[in-house]
Amino acid sequence: MAESEWRPVHGVLMTSEPIEAYGGVAFPAALLRSFAENLDGGQFPFHLDHDLTKPIRTRHFEVLVQDRSDGIAELRFRAEMHVDDVHFIDSHPAMSATVMRPLARDEHSPHQADAPFQLSADHAWFGDEALIGAEEQLILRGVPAERLVVQRAYQFAVAPDPQIYIDVALTILLSVGANALWDGIKLLFARRRTPPGGDPTTPTTVNIEITDDTRVLRAVVATDDHDVAERAIDSLEVVAREFQRGGRSADGTSESAVPTTTWDDPNRRWTPPS
Predict the structure, then answer these.
(1) What's the DSSP call for residue 220?
(2) What pLDDT is attached to residue 255?
(3) For the chain, what are the domain ranges?
């Protein structure tokens, strides 16, 4: 892309202030600095309204931590955004980020960042007990316990949405089957809670990233209907088989390039990746 197609942008991703939606949980400045060290200069996915089907194109991403006069630390960013996406900043001036953190049970356990099956869910909507229950179901259905990690998701937004995130290796998905995946997800649906200020009619969004070495394919279904979610997940093996045969997928180097398929319930199908 030509240099004229990019514009400089900057903003705040998160702060050390207590987050009301998560019962006053606060991320200390030291943790923000750790995030900054891990993120600086790398790829960082931007999406509109935490919707993984709406990536925003960025490059030259840099982060740093700055202290405000009131003692609150801010994790700030600088980047270049594609000119066609800059209007999102104008209409959605508050930028935010999603981070994954261990369950209370696992705070002092070694973190498996490269686990081939990772399940997380927004902590305002899904408690640790729901995630542990989903973990137990997945293990019963054949997912090796040593290859599975469950975590809390924190969305730094005014009103976090009920989001479920799954990163799964293609080999595991095809080995245990999509209906095994549904056994874990349906327990999260059943144990969803509405946080203070939350809208109980907000659909739950299930974001699934299927990986095969460096290739990535994303599948997203958003619904408040248990049956719709079940149909979508049970049909996921069709998508996985196409992915296995070498259907369109990304090499994992660019967030905006990750092909995404969404569930089209009226037609009972996953849309062609785009």
Answers:
(1) E
(2) 45
(3) 3-96, 99-270
- The pLDDT of residue 252 is 46
Question: Which single residue is written with the structure tokens 């207590």?
Answer: 18
Structure tokens belonging to residue 147:
């290859």
Give the CA angle between residues 170, 47, 30 to the nearest 5°: 90
Buried b (16+ CB within 10 A) or exposed e, 13-52: bbbbeebebbeeeebebebbeebbeebeeeebebbeebeb
Query: What was the pLDDT predicted at 53?
Result: 66
Give the integer Cα–Cα distance in Å for 206 and 153. 13
The closest alpha carbon to 103, from 115, 95, 114, 111, belongs to 111
Its pTM stands at 0.79
> Residue 185 has which token pair?
């997800």
Q: Give me the helices (H) in the chain, please.
A: 29-39, 87-91, 128-140, 170-176, 178-190, 226-234, 236-244
> 62-66, 133-137, 198-202, 215-219: which range is least confident on average?
62-66
- How far apart are alpha carbons 179 and 114 in whole angstroms? 24
Residue 207, helix vs strand vs coil: strand
